Amino acid sequence: MAALPKIGTTVHRKIAALADLARFARDSGQGNGRRVLGGGRATVRAALYLAALHASRHSATFGAFRLMLQEAGKPVKAALTATASKLLR
Q1: Once rounded to an integer, what is the mean pLDDT over residues 62-81?
Q2: 28 lies in which domain range?
Q3: pTM for the complete prediction?
Q4: Is 28 left (phi over 0), alpha (psi -120 to 50) or beta?
Q5: 50 within some domain
Q6: CA angle, corner 59, sides to 55 and 64, nearest 5?
Q7: Residue 77's closest CA among 38, 43, 42, 36?
Q8: Which segments of the chain are extended strands (E)?
Q9: What's the CA gap between 20 and 36, in Å, rounded?
Q10: d(Cα 15, Cα 13) in Å, to the nearest integer?
Q11: Is residue 56 very low, low, confident or very high in pLDDT (cuts 50, 70, 90)?
Q12: 20 within domain boundaries
């Protein structure tokens, strides 16, 4: 939390981008592909990712959220990233 001093003053989308949890399109012309993470604080993302992994295994709320995303067809890492974003908010 020390690496995100603006956490209480900005909207959650900007905080997710600062924490390197927001996916950005890097498309060119007609080509489009998978969205990638980038442009934020990697140390915060790593800490939140590990916290989301632990929370999804040991908390019923976050475990159900991750399972719901995976059953909807999301990849495991995308579901964990969404869980980390939920933890951050």
Answers
A1: 92
A2: 12-88
A3: 0.70
A4: beta
A5: yes
A6: 100
A7: 36
A8: 23-24, 36-37
A9: 10
A10: 5
A11: very high
A12: yes
